[in-house]
Design a protein that fits this description.
There is one protein chain. This protein is α+β, with helices and mostly antiparallel strands and 158 residues long. It has 2 domains: 2-83, SH3 type barrels; 86-157, Beta Barrel (OB fold (Dihydrolipoamide Acetyltransferase, E2P)), CATH 2.40.50.140. It contains 2 helices and 11 strands; from the N terminus they run αβββββββββαββ. The chain has a 5-stranded antiparallel beta sheet, with helices on one face. A 4-stranded antiparallel beta sheet has the order 2-3-4-5, with no helix packed on it. A hairpin with a 4-residue loop joins strand 7 (86-95) and strand 8. The termini are far apart. 15% of the residues are buried. Keywords: Hypusine, Initiation factor, Protein biosynthesis.
Length: 158
């Protein structure tokens, strides 16, 4: 009995991270999982193949967390995994010495498990704004169990 329950839970946990979508319906600026990574599609081209072959979709996409370029070719009638991508805004409270940020959630709790972004430009903007004592709101993008700060808004002085 416990084996069955455990199997059910693990399949449920994996299923909530992505959903299937037919390759032929995925468009530019949509999301797609390539090689197990959540990506934003930057280019889609569809090729018609021979007499009995399937039309194929060629996707060029950028990993939303590492900014690496990935490509995939999938028959247009097949399903692809599409990640559930969420964007959430949090107010920045503090930046610790070890590179973790402390964020204020909507319900008043703190979220302390996020590191500063690896993008130098965004990192410098966050550090400079925080050093000047500005009220900053960061946008956190989450997909497939990963989270990263992807944008910054200045909501004025404290």
């Amino acid at each position: 009995m416990s084996d069955e329950e455990h199997h059910f839970e693990s399949s449920d946990a994996g299923a909530s991270k992505t959903y299937p979508q037919q390759a032929g319906t995925i468009r530019k600026n949509g999301y797609l999982v390539i090689k197990g990574r959540p990506c934003k599609v930057v280019e889609v081209s569809t090729s018609k193949t021979g007499k009995h072959g399937h039309a194929k979709c060629h996707f060029v996409a950028i990993d939303i967390f590492t900014a690496k370029k990935l490509e995939d070719i999938v028959p247009s009638s097949h399903n692809c995994d599409v990640p559930h991508v969420n964007r959430t805004e949090y107010q920045l409270i503090d930046i610790s010495e070890d590179g973790f940020v402390s964020l204020l959630t909507e319900n008043g709790n703190t979220k302390d498990d996020l590191k500063l972004p690896t993008d130098d430009n965004l990192l410098n903007q966050i550090k400079a704004g925080f050093g000047e004592g500005k009220d900053l709101v960061v946008t956190v993008m989450s997909a497939m169990g990963e989270e990263q700060i992807c944008a910054l808004k200045d909501i004025g002085p404290k």
